[in-house]
Amino acid sequence: MEYRRLGKTGLTISAVGLGGHWKGLEPVLGRPFQGSGYDDSDFENIRAADFIANRHEVVSRAIELGINYVDACSPQEVLAYSRALAGRRDAMLLGYSWHTREPRFPEWRSAGKLVEGLKEGLAETGLEAAGLWRISLPADGIEDEGERRRIEDATAGALDLARRQGLARATGVSSHDGAWLRRMVAAYPEQIEVILFPVPAGSGAAPADGLWEAAQAHDTGVLGIKPFGGGALFRGDACDGRRARLAIRSILKNPALAATLPGCASVQQVTDAVAAASEPRSFDPEERAELARVAEAMRARVPGWLRNWVRP
Fold first, then answer.
1. pLDDT in tens, 160-208
2. Using one digit for the tens of pLDDT, what is the confidence trace for 247-268?
3. What is the residue extent of each domain of the chain?
4. What mean pLDDT is reported for the chain?
5. CA atoms within 13 A on the CB side of 199
6. Contacts of 165 (CB under 8 A, 6+ apart)
C-alpha cells in the first residue's frame, strides 16, 4: 500500500481508501438485495446478519491490506461501519457525515444545530469523536446567494466548534459543485482541511475550474469519490477487476490526490482495488486505448450530474 499526506491535517492515509456506499451486493449475498448505503431499505439491511458479516469481512480485508480510511456519508453507513470497526477502531480513520442532520436540510443550517446533530450521531454510534467530520453540502447546490452564505458560515462555524470541543480529529466538506468547493477552500482555509468530490476514471490529472490549484494553494487534503462512476464502469463480467485496477491506476497518477475511495461489495473487490496501488502508473499504448474506451463507455452511463466530472 502507498500512503499519502492528507493536506494540513497531519494525517497520513492509504492511497486507496474504502468508500462508504455498498452496491452490487445481490450476487455476493446470494439473495435479492436493495440498498446503496443511503436508502430507507438500508436501515433494515444494517440489522441483517449476512449483510453485517459482509461488511465485517470487507473491512477486515481492507485493514489486512493496509487501508486505513473508510468514508461514511449517511446515518446507515456511519452505523454500519462503526459497528464493523468495533474493537479495532484505531485501525481505520472513519470519515463521518450524517447527511440528514446537515445543511442539505434547512433546519440544520446553523452552527449550533450542526454540532448538536454531530453529538447525537456520535452518541448513537458509541464514537467519542469523528476521525474526519466532513459535512455534506446540498447535493443540488444553492442558487440564492444569501442562503449560500448562511450555509457556508454555519458549516465553517460548526467545524470550528467541533474541533475545539474535541468532537472531530479533522474537518472538511464534500460537494458535487466544484466551484462552490473552490470558493469555500479559499474563504475558510482553517476550518476546511479536507474536501471530497468526484474523481472518476477518465477525470484526468487536473480537472478544470481551478479546484486542484486552490486545494494545493491552501494545503487542503483531497479525497476522490466515485472512482467507478457509481458502478457505471462495470459490466458484470470477468474483466471488471481489470477495469477497476485501470481506473484506480489512472486516478492515482495525480500526486495532489490523497486517496481514492472505491466502494467494495466483496473481499475480492477490495483485493483488486488495493492491487492497483502497487501497479505501474504509466500506461502502454494498449492500456491507454483500453482506459479511453472504458472511460467513454462509463461517461455515457453515469447520471447527468456526474458526467461533467468524467473528462472525454
1. 999 999 999 999 999 998 899 999 999 999 999 999 999 998 775 555 5
2. 999 999 999 999 999 999 999 9
3. 3-302
4. 92
5. 31
6. 115
Q: Which three cell numbers stand for residue 101?
A: 442532520
Maximum Cα–Cα distance for the chain, whole Å?
Answer: 54
CATH number of the domain at 3-302, please? 3.20.20.100
Number of residues that this document lists for the chain = 312
